[in-house]
Amino acid sequence: MSQALTLARPYARAAFAIAREAGALPAWSSALAFAARVAADPQIAGLLGNPKLTRADTVTLLAPEGASEVFGDFLALLFDNRRLPLLPEIAGLFDELRFEAERTVKALVTSAVVLPAAELETIKSALKRRFGREVEVETAVDASLIGGAVIDAGDIVIDGSLKGKLGRLQAALAH
């Protein structure tokens, strides 16, 4: 994994530089995410190694509809250098660079039930005060949490779930 990240880093930086210069960071981010999802599919991954697959076919397969010509050229470069399997790592590193440049934190809020919009806004405001940055919130539902929520924001995890509290209580009682 670390070797893949090492190999992917220069491509992510190059893609970031191109996208920032064009003022198209969000478009490149979503295009890279699409290409990464397609390339990570086991059936497609096997197809990408096929020598009969041409450069143009590969770009058509991996580029989302409406992607810029420059993005297609980037995919062609990855094809030429046999780096298409690195697309998931490239997309992840690109997003890290983007969020750092935009001073944004990406947070995943996992709750036992779907949270109302007002509650999500409260969480977003609290995270914005804590990090001093804009916060992009994604949500997920995990009924096994019983109640409450778990917030995963970069290197910080805030476990306010009943499942987590019960686990900590159990550990405290066991000692």
From TrEMBL:
Belongs to the ATPase delta chain family. This protein is part of the stalk that links CF(0) to CF(1). It either transmits conformational changes from CF(0) to CF(1) or is implicated in proton conduction. F(1)F(0) ATP synthase produces ATP from ADP in the presence of a proton or sodium gradient. F-type ATPases consist of two structural domains, F(1) containing the extramembraneous catalytic core and F(0) containing the membrane proton channel, linked together by a central stalk and a peripheral stalk. During catalysis, ATP synthesis in the catalytic domain of F(1) is coupled via a rotary mechanism of the central stalk subunits to proton translocation. InterPro entries: ATP_synth_OSCP/delta_N_sf, ATPase_OSCP/dsu. This is ATP synthase subunit delta. It is a peripheral membrane protein. The keyword Cell membrane applies. Its main location: membrane. SUPFAM superfamilies: N-terminal domain of the delta subunit of the F1F0-ATP synthase. The keyword Transport applies. It comes from the Bacteria. Pfam families: OSCP (PF00213). Keywords: ATP synthesis, Cell membrane, CF(1), Hydrogen ion transport, Ion transport, Membrane, Transport. It comes from Thermomonas beijingensis. It is found in: Cell membrane; Membrane.
